[in-house]
Amino acid sequence: MKTATEYLESMKAYNPRIFLGGKQVNLHENSTTLTVLRANARVYELAEDPKYADIMTAISAYSGEKVSRNLHISSSTADLEKRSEMATLTSQMLGTCNYRCVGADVLNALAGITWEMDKELGTNYHSRLLNHVKYLQENDLAVSGGVTDAKGDRTKRPVEQEDPDVYVHVVEKREDGIVVRGAKVSQSGAIGSHETLVIPTMGMRQGEEDFAVAFAVPNGTEGLTYICQYTPFTAERELSPDVKYLGNPLYGQRETCIMVFDNVFIPWEHVFMCGEAKYSGRLVARFAKTHRMNCGGACKVGFADLIIGATQLAAEFSGVQKAPHIVEKMTDMIRINETARACTIAAALKGHEEPAGSGFFQPDDIFGNAAKLTIADGFWDILKWAGDIGGGMAVTMPSELELENPETAHYVRKFMKASAPAEQRLRIAKFIQNWCAGLHGAGTWHGAGSPMAQKMALYALTNFEEKKSLARSLAGLKEE
């Protein structure tokens, strides 16, 4: 397994074509792209720590060696539980995305679907995938996942689009591989990964076979362009004389990009679906149920742990921590978070083998959707109470640079002091600002699918006949 230093060293071999804020930037030199490298390095570091080994690592079924859980395919409910614990832990340690999260969940979804295709169609996708998994594990590579397409006009299917490139699709099949074109959007951490695993964004139909494609692509492959998000936090990081003045100094906000595929060649050994439209919806569904448990539930629970801790500190620094209404609001934050945590744990422990006979495990769909839906709604309430208890300081405080300004330092220390020194109050207020005035609210709402997707899934998955039968029996109604 790689150390954090070895990961950073290995990334020097990659020089992806990255654009940020209207100009091309160097992955290893830009202040924003560096946050992705630091975050990934921290995940490698956690895997080295004996304290977290049980969560961050697993024993490979293929080599018998210890490997990163980010590259492990779950084969039990215990694996699923540890996977969710990893999501929470990395969020607690980073305060931003574990950029290997989507790749891990895509890998698990591909394991089952390729096994199924090989069994039913006589393909060799599964053997290809397992060979690739062994390669990933042996080299301890950071893998991101590419799922969401640009989609274009949402009233039209992929084949009906004016420009088919709004969905990633195959434009040429050759003896040695395929050529793909299109784009994946909102790609978390693709710029700092060794490679990206790409799957369809939705279930494809007959006639849409070119869009039913899954593959692995190394970072910086010819034809790949990464167009990064640009936010006020990007500008603040660029202008800050020292990262210590920022709300999340080392790891920043979640960094995403549009990942453009402009006639990118993929060799056959890296192709895991090509034209099997019938299986694409099943693949996406399996990814979604896993990702809703992990990103949708467990990850945001870790974020909320940080927000709750910061909010309690803010209350103590102001001297209001024992006020009844403060205690009530803090308790509400805890209730929301622990409910989401409980749904996440239930999704793991109620998981099952899928598909039957494969040896691969998927979380329970209902509890996974409930976890995501609970935290999507609840996260806004957690942010609301953090802003309420943190006070106006979270948005009106002066810069911490004023503490180093001889003209203003004594005023700031005098007037910003409460039950704690001004330095502490400003720092925790800045940390709360990072959440309440940052990108995480909308990110939590849409990450792993918008809440309407979970509501639709919950309704479709619920066994109403069983519930009606229970009600009829106790109410004394005859079955119809």
Describe the structure.
The structure is a single chain. The chain has 16 helices and 14 strands. It is of the alpha+beta class. It has a 6-stranded mixed sheet with strand order 2-1-10-11-7-6, with no helix packed on it. Helix 4 runs antiparallel to helix 9 and helix 5 packs antiparallel against helix 8. The mean pLDDT is 96.
Layout of SSEs?
Blueprint (H helix, E strand, L loop, with lengths): L3 H7 L7 E3 L2 E3 L7 H16 L4 H4 E3 L6 E3 L8 H18 L6 H21 L3 H15 L3 E4 L22 E5 L3 E12 L6 E4 L14 E6 L5 E5 L3 H8 L16 E12 L3 E4 L2 H42 L5 H26 L2 E2 L7 E2 L2 H26 L2 H4 L12 H7 L6 H15 L3 H7 L4 H11 L2 H12 L5
Helix pairs in contact: 1-2, 4-8, 4-9, 5-6, 5-8, 8-9, 8-10, 8-13, 9-10, 10-13, 10-14, 10-15
